[in-house]
Amino acid sequence: MLPSKEELIKVVTFKTSRSGGKGGQNVNKVSSKVELILDLNLTPFFTEEERVLLKERLANRLDLEGCLHIVSQEDRSQLMNKERTLVKLIALLKSALHIQKKRKPTKIPKAVIRKRLADKQSVGSKKELRKRPQLD
To answer: Which site from 24, 43, 58, 79 is most exposed, i.e. has the minimal number of CB atoms within 10 Å?
Structure first.
């Protein structure tokens, strides 16, 4: 079960810093870059199976301590970047915890098989009629 934004805010830590790139004086003065850090080992709302699943599926995004880092620096506002990191985190958790349904193999109906074979017969007979007659 996915936690709400309020529950996530209680568990995650935010780090702010100056974002790079274009922006002139605003970039030099304002710490608008936000890094969200979620320690998967300390999250109370995930079961042990969900924790294992998250660690397995997000292995390339975790650091050595098992913390998940998400960075946002698109906006000029620190508050907007915090919101973006939370939205990214929820989307990431949702995709990582999603369990795909097992595919039930379906049987091809006999009528469909018969129609396909009949179509092949008709195409074959058309092509046969296009040939020159054989001289015996």
So the answer is: 24
Cα–Cα distances (Å) from 121 to 96, 108, 110, 117, 129, in that order, read 49, 19, 17, 6, 12
Q: For residues 89 and 59, what is the distance between their CA atoms, to the nearest angstrom?
A: 15
Pair 8, 90: CB distance under 8 Å = yes
Q: Is residue 32 part of a domain?
A: yes
**Domains identified in the chain, total number:** 1
Domain of residue 93, residue span? 5-97
Q: Is residue 26 part of a domain?
A: yes
Domain-located, residue 131: no
Q: Tokens at residue 35, please?
A: 């890094």
> For the segment 83-95, what is each residue's pLDDT rounded down to a tens digit?
999 999 999 999 9
Asked if the structure places residue 14 within a domain, the reply is: yes
